[in-house]
């Protein structure tokens, strides 16, 4: 009925040994419950949008109120103005901001704006980076397509693919060469400032500076795709952590409090090009709908609780340290890249700093780990490329239970006959 049984390909278990994925019916706090009533500790966090856990009371209240008072008006509302102001208070670089329904739309429009502003058509993106599912960024795209082995560009016209220059992440030299060759045609360099889509991969020192310097030299804009990173590691953008400032920023996932949303914004003179003020068209029947926006407002309020991000980091550190100690004990090669409350588990001996490194990690070991953890009531992302996200309701007991499940799984993996 539904192609592959899923409404988004990353939900399939194709990359972790196949078979039907688990079906879930209910979430509460740190837990998801499957159709048989079994409880799982959830680190998938819906691939990134969830940070307060499932059915957080403040979000339930906001969504219930929106349901009672109308979920869609097709008119401006005071909620969206307040939300835009709160976003700008958190991210001052969002001098002006527009809401969309998804991260895909946000990045897509930011790129369209960059093209309009510069009058150029090419973009640089980084190998393995995922920026949504519009044509331009499905050229050498990341986790979803790469995991499933679907040709990146099936259905994407060759003419579109010719406008995309792909460079390895964390490779300033390759970037400089690409800019030397295509700089005069370049509208934007699009980048996740901290990669969240082939694992968590932080930028190496000077990599982001190189992006900004080269973009400035050739007259291209820098677009930060912060659909995963914003509000994940701190309240706001990661730009202050990294000491950089993008021209345009795309948001999504977390900011909707679990309802569909996206947003893009940045320098006022660029945003002035957006219709109806300017000639760059972007629209959406559902964009800025009261339900998503009121959930987003409640979410931003809750995220300002003192110590929230330190708490996420402490739990993620305990998990990462525990997993590394256990993998060491059982002789299983494991690299953990962690930033704040998010980390990735790559089964390899080599550090992961590019997509090629992530690709080289052992998918069969990850599949065995995923399945072992699932059997023991821990839900991980069904792909070796995706990150674990710690959520506010994860307790120390959940961390301990997760590490006990990992120990049993590693023991089982170490005892399994070596694959040829
Ligand atoms: C998820 C994601 C997107 C796409 O967002 P959707 O809401 O799924 O369309 C874009 N960029 C990044 C970095 C993402 O992780």
From TrEMBL:
EC number: 5.4.3.8
Gene3D superfamilies reported for this sequence: Aspartate Aminotransferase, domain 1, Type I PLP-dependent aspartate aminotransferase-like (Major domain)
Residues carrying N6-(pyridoxal phosphate)lysine: 253
Keywords: Aminotransferase, Cytoplasm, Isomerase, Porphyrin biosynthesis, Pyridoxal phosphate, Transferase
Cited InterPro entries: 4pyrrol_synth_GluAld_NH2Trfase, Aminotrans_3, Aminotrans_3_PPA_site, PyrdxlP-dep_Trfase, PyrdxlP-dep_Trfase_major, PyrdxlP-dep_Trfase_small
First-listed, main subcellular location of the protein, grouped into a coarse class: cytoplasm
Pathway of action: Porphyrin-containing compound metabolism; protoporphyrin-IX biosynthesis; 5-aminolevulinate from L-glutamyl-tRNA(Glu): step 2/2
Subcellular location: Cytoplasm
Family recorded in the similarity comment: Belongs to the class-III pyridoxal-phosphate-dependent aminotransferase family. HemL subfamily.
Subunit structure: Homodimer.
PANTHER family in alphabetical order: GLUTAMATE-1-SEMIALDEHYDE 2,1-AMINOMUTASE, GLUTAMATE-1-SEMIALDEHYDE 2,1-AMINOMUTASE 2
Protein name from the UniProt record: Glutamate-1-semialdehyde 2,1-aminomutase
Annotated organism of origin: Hydrogenibacillus schlegelii
Taxonomic lineage from the root: Bacteria, Bacillati, Bacillota, Bacilli, Bacillales
The gene coding this protein: hemL
């Amino acid at each position: 009925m539904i192609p592959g049984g899923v409404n988004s390909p990353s939900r399939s278990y194709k990359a972790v040994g196949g078979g039907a994925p688990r079906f879930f019916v209910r979430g509460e706090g740190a837990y998801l419950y499957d159709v048989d009533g079994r409880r799982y500790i959830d680190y998938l966090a819906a691939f990134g949008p969830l940070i307060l856990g499932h059915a957080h009371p403040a979000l339930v209240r906001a969504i219930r109120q929106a349901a009672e008072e109308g979920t869609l008006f097709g008119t401006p509302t005071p909620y969206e103005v307040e939300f835009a102001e709160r976003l700008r208070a958190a991210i001052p670089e969002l001098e002006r901001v527009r809401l969309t329904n998804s991260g895909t739309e946000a990045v897509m429009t930011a790129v369209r704006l960059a093209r309009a502003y510069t009058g150029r058509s090419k973009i640089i993106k980084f190998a393995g980076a995922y920026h949504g599912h519009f044509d331009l960024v499905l050229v050498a795209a990341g986790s979803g397509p790469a995991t499933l082995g679907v040709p990146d560009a099936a259905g994407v016209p060759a003419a579109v693919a010719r406008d995309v220059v792909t460079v390895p992440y964390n490779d300033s030299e390759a970037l400089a060469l690409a800019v030397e060759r295509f700089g005069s045609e370049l509208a934007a360099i699009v980048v996740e400032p901290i990669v969240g889509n082939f694992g968590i991969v932080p930028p190496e020192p000077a990599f982001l500076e190189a992006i900004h310097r080269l973009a400035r030299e050739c007259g291209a804009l820098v677009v930060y795709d912060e659909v995963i990173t914003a509000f994940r590691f701190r309240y706001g953008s990661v730009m202050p952590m990294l000491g950089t400032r993008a021209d345009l920023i795309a948001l999504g996932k977390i900011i909707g409090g679990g309802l569909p949303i996206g947003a893009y914004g940045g320098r006022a003179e660029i945003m002035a090009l957006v219709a109806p003020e300017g000639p760059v068209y972007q629209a959406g029947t559902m964009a800025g709908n009261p339900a998503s926006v009121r959930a987003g407002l409640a979410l931003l309020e809750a995220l300002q609780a003192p110590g929230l991000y330190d708490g996420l980091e402490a739990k993620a550190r305990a998990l990462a340290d525990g997993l590394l100690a256990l993998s060491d004990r059982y002789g299983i090669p494991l690299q953990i890249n962690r930033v704040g409350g998010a980390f990735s588990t790559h089964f390899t001996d080599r550090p992961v700093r590019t997509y090629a490194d992530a690709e080289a990690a052992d998918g069969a070991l990850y599949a065995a780990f995923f399945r072992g953890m699932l059997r023991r009531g821990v839900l991980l992302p069904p792909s070796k490329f995706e990150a674990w996200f710690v959520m506010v309701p994860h307790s120390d007991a959940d961390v301990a239970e997760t590490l006990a499940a990992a120990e049993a799984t590693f023991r089982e993996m170490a005892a399994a006959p070596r694959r040829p």
